[in-house]
């Protein structure tokens, strides 16, 4: 996706959420028009319609797991493509109206995901406060500003947007929690391979049978392609009927990844490519012996010669 | 779990949700004290503390997938055990205060899961109505009763509890949607095998490595045990670190299931048994040649004789 | 190999063996000069040196298994290529000098392979006759002619060559025994695929390790290529060090076979192609769903488009 | 097999072969009566009939591969059991009658296996000598003694038996060649596990189908049992119909081996145990994590408790 001046980026809003923080990490966002959307489907629909060039949405969280609405939206409808991933450490602040002290906090609001990550801290610190679900942490902050609740659990960066004060920062139950966001555009030529890339895709089994998942995994394993994430998601047509949302190591331009994808394409009812993009951690995958591009190309040359001559060139 | 008079059953409340409808399908519930809990963790904690003999909670939905809070609560803390599953078709009603007509509905509330299942119907039928998330469908109904919203998307059975009227019944975007609930008690001897059973478990990989999931699946496959559900769930210790929540066909007392579980126990960092219980659909699993209990026992006898005599009995 | 007038065919001699019968089944042999060789290595060396255009040698026998000298000669030295296979039922005659009766037979000679196939018949019919090994059945016949032995076990067609009489015909211990012969030439473009072909090859593991054979088999299995024969043969560098001599179903020009061969090439220390040629039984292999040439080509087109556009053509 | 005084050992004769050298390595052979037999079947039949307590026969050779007659005799008929293996380096001598010099050697005899191992040496050293096959190397020596041939290729130890002279010793084409012999008795309790053992068996596929061999290998692989040898042997009922002769690492009393054998027993038409015995090299196999006897027993205890209590003991 070209980072031209005047690019338009959507993101899962409202303003002041971690997703806005994520989109601001994209260099091209500096000059871009940023538009918050109410929901992941709304943000992705805006990309499909051409209202935005790309949208940042959350994909998974090291504590809560997949953001299923994102997986499901990417898996159906007009094709979309991930061009970048962003990892953000998850840490919350307790935001209050200026002047509110600890003893004044009787009610706390946050998105349930945020709550899940500070539950123990809240129980220990504010045992008598009552928690209520909000549509997002930013919405919780907005409601605190509006006087509905006494405190919101949200990113500290939301304080400014809603004119709140950070009563406590660095709140989380588990150290090292990370949320992974993805930048989604309409399909286009994937960004070039960097040597440390990921490929995302959705594979649906045509004919559900025992061992179908094993067969899917073997298509990757036999080509030495490691998976970094696999989720089963219901197809909507009955319990026990799934498609698989998969991230694998490597880039679609790499031979082992390309051959694995062709293998999936042949055995699955459908395969949807969701993008090849640089790994946020920049760590090149381990590629086992026999699975490098050079070895794939050597084998292809060898086969071409054998098919013509019946033996390798040096024997003719 | 003994179905004695005076049994105490918890469930994910409030009253009037599908979960209450599920718990009422358990014969022992007829004479039992039924207690709604605010959240899945609260219901399961009540079982752990002995406040309830068992609790009914939602496990997965054919449209939305796993109920992750249930998976995560069963996977950690003091062990719990599933003793029964209940499948309920998902169909919603639009509930309003008596006297409210279609044209009066400007605001609609429901749990986001309920919304996901009627989104298209709402967009087509009430394109101008504004939807707001509620903590549960029943809570949406309660807020309609309180005058906060004009209409709630909930099970028709909630109308009575909240003195509402069913404006439309049978609302859903996709036919055949089903929610699966499980009845959870403290660990005890699993109910006897019926020939059409499921076994649930959680397997955590000790040493995360490419191919770990493939190895887990092969432990089942080589013993002819089919999986009906597998979910990866984050362990909380970083992206890419998962445990697997698994339902397989068969009962822990069956030899092929027992041997597969021992295999998992040896290669996984930990395996948590979550129960063997009758399949709600009553369909016996396909057991391929060589994998019946009789064949396992024949092989065990054969081995015992060979180990003693060096050859089968009839040759000595 | 072109069947031109004046073609020169070698075969494992002497004249009058089953191998001569096999070479005479090749249409081009009608006009060819046929030369018997003392041993399989001698016959194949004659092809390598250009003394013969092709040579017929035995490859395996349904009773005795692989003809290991043939496997080993094909696996090393200058490359050779199988262009045809011939199956011959194995049935023997008891040949004697004219005038010899049953009661006169005190000594019987044959190649040990021939003996293995008539051992029980000889024990029942001529319990007192003493058997001696000969270099070939034909050589046994020659020695009977020379008066060294009383009878030879050989093909009935050998009687004429050595001026012997067929005392009993149709001798064999097991019905349906078959020997498979192969016609071997110098490497050239393999004959075109017929739809019912076999491919022969030798794969040597670079780095011997547990599971190496499993990996070799998986390269075939994941592409739906069935094996009709696999033999482990020592490499000569120590017990437990093998290469594998393999026949698989299908032709090297077929995509699934080509991709499996490239997979082997990458994971094995060396792969030697030994030819693709029509199956003698003419039965097309079962090709499972996803593994036909059409499906391979469809997947390749799909990948090419995805790599360029990020999505299938109809979505651009 | 008890090593009592008066034990009777058979071996593949005649006297003066490597097999006699192998049987003499068994401590109990010192006091035993040693009987040469004409053929492997004859030696093994003598064990079956009780004429011998045990017999030493060749099993495989690092140059020539399996001794197929041994494999086939062990695979059928009354069960037999291997109780010991012996490895002997293969090195030959050129034996002549006293007084014969290099220039006098016009004819050389040996068993074809011996010839295969000195072929290049002979071609370089005695390019004009004519080689003839003998039934065994010892028989070649006997014929040299009788004046039929000028020289025999045989073990140096045969010189004394046949009153010949060693013209050259240490003759072989490839260094490090080894022959493996096995001591075979009637079935009895296998010798105790030493920690460095092998188990031999024959597995026949009931219903021949693509992937059958893969399934056999997976029964071993999933329990971490490595194979040190696998041979396909025809069943005699048609080309492409095989049983598999297998050596695996470990002892039948070890849990991983026992479970793998039970797995084979269930999926194969028949499994014949051929013995567990100490590895001649004394090297303990690598046992991967999860596959030790302790881990098998821990998993079995865990399963037993789960089946009774629904959870591990420490949670009850």
Give the proportion of residues in helices of chain A. 25-40%
Task: Name the pair of protein chains with the most residues at their interface, and give those residue counts.
Answer: A-B, 41 and 41 residues
Question: What pattern of helices and strands is seen along the backbone of chain A?
Answer: EHEHEEHEEEHEHEHEEEHEEHEH
Shape of chain A: elongated
The DSSP helix count of chain A reads: 9
Structure description:
Four copies of one chain form a homotetramer. With about 325 residues, chain A is α/β, with parallel strands linked by helices. Chain A is built from nine helices and 15 strands. In chain A, strand 1, helix 1 (about 20-25) and strand 2 (about 35) form a beta-alpha-beta unit. In chain A, helix 7 packs antiparallel against helix 8 (about 255-265). The mean pLDDT of chain A is about 90. Chains in contact: A-B, A-C, B-D, C-D.
Brief characterization of the structure:
The structure is a homotetramer of 316-residue chains. The first copy, chain A, has helices at 18-23, 40-49, 68-75, 112-125, 137-145, 158-162, 212-221, 255-267, 293-309, and strands at 8-12, 33-37, 54-61, 65-66, 81-89, 92-96, 107-110, 130-133, 151-154, 165-171, 178-185, 197-204, 227-234, 242-249, 270-278. Chain A is α/β, with parallel strands linked by helices.
